[in-house]
TrEMBL record, chain A:
This is ABC transporter permease. The keyword Transport applies. The keyword Transmembrane helix applies. The chain crosses the membrane at residues 20-37, 116-140, 189-210, 222-240, 285-303. It is found in: Cell membrane.
Automatic annotation (TrEMBL), chain B:
It comes from Marinomonas piezotolerans. This is ABC transporter ATP-binding protein. Gene3D superfamilies: P-loop containing nucleotide triphosphate hydrolases (3.40.50.300). Residues 5-239 form the ABC transporter domain. It is a peripheral membrane protein. GO terms for cellular component: plasma membrane. Its main location: membrane. GO terms for molecular function: ATP binding; ATP hydrolysis activity; nitrate transmembrane transporter activity. Belongs to the ABC transporter superfamily. Keywords: ATP-binding, Cell membrane, Membrane, Nucleotide-binding, Transport. SUPFAM superfamilies: P-loop containing nucleoside triphosphate hydrolases. Residues 272-281 have a biased composition (Basic residues). Residues 262-281 are annotated as: Disordered. It is found in: Cell membrane.
Length: 323, 281
C-alpha cells in the first residue's frame, strides 16, 4: 500500500468515525432544533410581540454586549471625571483630600452572570464542606445514620422558595456589621443554595461509604489500620465514584435553585435579570429573557462538564462510564 | 513436635431467623512451626469459617485459638490472610498495596529505605517487580493474586492463611502459582493454613491434609500426613504410587465417607458459593 493510499484510507476512517459521530449528528440536531424554533416561535403571539426566534435572540445577544460595553465606558468616564475634579480642587487647595465615590450604574447582563457564578460556587462549596464529612460519618456509623435519616428525608424535598423567607430574615437579623464583607443578598442566595443542594452529596457519600467491599474491610482489619488511615486509605477512595455522582447532582440543583432564589428575592444575578426584563415589558424583553435562558442552560452544562473532568481525574475506576 | 498454632475445641454458631445455626462443632487442630496444612471439604462445610476464626475475623462461640501460647483476639498482621479474590485496593498500584501493609507493620522498626527494599524484595519473591507500578485493573487475575501473596508475605506473619487462593484462576495459571508458592515456601518455611477444593493442589503442597466432615456442625474428619520429599515436581509425582495413593485417600473421604446426598438447602453464612449448587452424589 502506498503512502497516499494509506493517508486516504485513514482520512476516510477519520471522517467516518470521528466526524459523523462526534460532530455531524450534533450539528444536524442543533440545526433542526433552530429551524423548528424559528417556525414555531413566529406562530406564538404575546402582548409583548411574537415569541422570540433564534434570529431575534441573536440580535438581543449583540445588543446585550453593546449595553455592557457602553456601561463600562460610562463607568470609566465617571471615574475620570471624578479624578479631574479632585485634581482641580487640590490645585487650588493642597490640603483637600478627595473622596472617590463608586459608580452606581445598573449591573449589565454579564455582571449578573458573574454574580450568579460566584454565588453558586460559594453555596455549592459550603454544601460540599458540610455534606461530605456528614455523609462519611453517617455512612460509617449506622446509629448516627438512623438518628439523622428522618431529618435528612424531611429536609431533602424542600423547595428553595420555602427556605428563602426564613433565610432572609435570619441573615438580616444575625449578620449586622458596619463594614460588611459580603452583601446580605449574596449571603441569602448562598445559604438557600447550600440548604437545597447538599442532600444528594450527603446521601450518595453515605451510601458509598456504607458500601465498601467486605473483603477490603477485612484487609483493613487484618492490617489493624487505625481509624483515620482506614477512612483515608479505604473508605474515601472506594466512596469516590458515588461521591462524585452526588456532587454533580448537587451542582445541577445548586444552579437551578440559585436562579429561582434570585428571581424571588430580587437578589443580584441572572434570576434578577430575567425578572427585571419581565417587569420591564419592552418589545425586546422576551428576546433578552431567551438569551438569559440559553445562557443559564449553557453555564449549567459547563459546570457539569467541569465536575466530570474533576471526577475523571480523581476517580480510580477508569472503567466506570461517565456521562 | 512443638505446637505453634493450637485450634482447640472451636465451635461457632451463627444467629439466623430460624434460631442459631451451628456451623462448627469441636474443631481441634495443632500445627507445628513451618508446617503447611490444607483444609479440604465440600462446599459449605465451614472450612472458611475455621480460617476466619484463626484470622480473628469471626469469634468462636466456644473454644479458642492459641498462637505461641497466646489467645487470638481479633485480626492482626501476624496472621496475614490471602483472600480468594485478591482483595487488592483498586486505587493503589501493586507497590502501594504492599506498601500499605509494610508501613502498617514496620513503621516503627524499619527506615524508609529499608521499607522500600522490603517491598521490592517481596514483589521479587512473587516475580512481580516488572508490574510494581500497575494498578490491579491493569494486570491479570494470576498477577493480582501474586501481589496479594506478596502483601501477605510482607507482613512477616507467623501464620499465613490462604482462603482458596487459586480458586478463581484457570488451571494453567493455578499450576504456575502453586509452583511459585512451593518455591517461596522452600526459602521462607512459613506456617501455612490453606483452604482448597482441589485434591491435587492439597496433596502437592501440603505436609498434612485436614479433611472436614459435612456441615452443619462440621468438624475434623480425618488427617492425612503427606510424606513426599520436597522439592516436589508435579510431573514426576503424577505417576508416583505414594502420590496416587494419597490422592485416592482424599477422594475416598470426600466421595464415599462424606458424600453429600441431600441438596444443600441452608448454606453456611461463610460460603456463598453453595448457593444453587445441587449435589446428588
Amino acid at each position: 500500500m502506498t503512502l497516499s493510499n494509506l493517508s486516504k484510507a485513514s482520512l476516510k476512517d477519520w471522517l467516518s468515525t470521528f466526524t459523523i459521530k462526534k460532530a455531524l449528528f450534533p450539528v444536524i440536531g442543533v440545526l433542526v432544533f433552530l429551524a423548528l424554533w424559528q417556525v414555531g416561535a413566529s406562530r406564538v403571539d404575546t402582548s409583548l410581540g411574537t415569541f422570540p426566534g433564534p434570529v431575534v435572540v441573536y440580535e438581543q445577544w449583540n445588543s446585550l454586549i453593546d449595553d455592557h460595553q457602553r456601561e463600562r465606558t460610562k463607568e470609566s468616564q465617571f471615574y475620570e471625571r471624578q479624578e479631574k475634579r479632585i485634581e482641580a480642587r487640590q490645585a487650588k487647595d493642597p490640603s483637600y483630600v478627595g473622596k472617590i465615590r463608586s459608580y452606581t450604574g445598573k449591573p449589565t447582563f454579564f455582571d449578573q452572570i458573574f454574580t450568579s457564578l460566584y454565588t453558586v460556587l460559594a453555596g455549592f462549596g459550603l454544601a460540599t464542606l458540610i455534606a461530605i464529612p456528614v455523609g462519611i460519618l453517617i455512612g460509617l456509623n449506622s446509629s448516627v445514620y438512623s438518628a439523622l435519616n428522618p431529618v435528612i428525608q424531611v429536609f431533602k424535598p424542600v423547595s428553595p422558595l420555602a427556605w428563602l423567607p426564613l433565610v432572609t430574615m435570619v441573615v438580616s437579623a444575625s449578620y449586622v456589621s458596619d463594614d460588611p464583607m459580603f452583601s446580605k443578598s449574596f449571603l441569602t442566595s448562598m445559604f438557600t443554595v447550600t440548604l437545597c443542594c447538599m442532600w444528594p452529596t450527603l446521601i450518595n457519600t453515605a451510601v458509598g461509604v456504607a458500601a465498601v467491599e467486605k473483603d477490603l474491610l477485612n484487609v483493613s482489619k487484618v492490617l489493624r489500620l487505625g481509624w483515620v488511615t482506614h477512612v483515608i486509605k479505604i473508605v474515601i477512595p472506594s466512596a469516590i465514584p458515588l461521591m462524585f455522582t452526588g456532587l454533580r447532582l448537587s451542582l445541577g440543583i445548586a444552579w437551578m435553585v440559585l436562579i429561582a432564589a434570585e428571581m424571588l428575592a430580587q437578589n443580584p444575578g441572572l434570576g434578577k435579570f430575567v425578572w427585571d426584563e419581565f417587569q420591564n415589558g419592552s418589545s425586546n424583553s422576551l428576546g433578552r429573557i431567551m438569551v438569559a435562558v440559553l445562557m443559564i442552560g449553557f453555564i449549567g452544562f459547563v459546570l457539569d462538564r467541569l465536575m466530570l473532568t474533576v471526577q475523571r481525574y480523581v476517580s480510580w475506576d477508569k472503567t466506570q462510564v461517565l456521562r | 513436635m512443638a505446637t505453634h498454632l493450637d485450634i482447640s475445641q472451636v465451635s461457632i454458631e451463627f444467629p439466623t431467623p430460624k434460631g442459631p445455626f451451628k456451623a462448627l462443632d469441636g474443631v481441634n487442630l495443632k500445627i507445628a512451626k513451618g508446617e503447611f496444612v490444607s483444609l479440604i471439604g465440600h462446599s459449605g462445610c465451614g472450612k472458611s469459617t475455621v480460617l476466619n476464626i484463626v484470622a480473628g475475623l469471626y469469634d468462636a462461640t466456644a473454644g479458642g485459638v492459641l498462637l505461641d501460647g497466646r489467645e487470638v483476639k481479633g485480626p492482626g498482621p501476624e496472621r496475614a490472610v490471602v483472600f480468594q479474590n485478591h482483595s487488592l485496593l483498586p486505587w493503589l498500584s501493586a507497590y502501594e498495596n504492599v506498601e500499605l501493609a509494610v508501613k502498617q507493620v514496620f513503621r516503627k522498626t524499619k527506615t524508609k529505605k529499608e521499607m522500600h527494599d522490603w517491598i521490592m524484595h517481596n514483589l521479587e519473591l512473587v516475580h512481580m517487580t516488572h508490574a510494581a507500578d500497575k494498578r490491579p485493573d491493569e494486570i491479570s487475575g494470576g498477577m493480582k493474586q501474586r501481589v496479594g501473596i506478596a502483601r501477605a508475605l510482607a507482613m512477616e506473619p507467623s501464620v499465613l492463611l490462604m482462603d482458596e487462593p487459586f480458586g478463581a484462576l484457570d488451571a494453567l495459571t493455578r499450576a504456575h502459582l502453586q509452583d511459585s508458592l512451593m518455591e517461596i515456601q522452600k526459602d521462607l518455611n512459613n506456617t501455612v493454613i490453606m483452604i482448597t477444593h482441589d485434591v491435587d493442589e492439597a496433596v502437592l503442597l501440603s505436609d498434612r491434609i485436614v479433611m472436614m466432615t459435612n456441615g452443619p456442625a462440621a468438624t475434623v474428619g480425618e488427617i492425612l500426613h503427606v510424606d513426599l520429599e520436597r522439592p516436589r515436581d508435579r510431573l514426576s509425582l503424577a505417576n508416583d504410587p505414594k502420590y496416587v495413593d494419597y490422592r485416592a485417600q482424599v477422594l475416598t473421604f470426600l466421595y464415599e465417607k462424606q458424600r453429600k446426598v441431600e441438596p444443600i438447602s441452608s448454606p453456611a453464612p461463610s460460603n456463598k458459593k453453595t448457593k444453587g449448587k445441587v449435589v446428588n452424589g
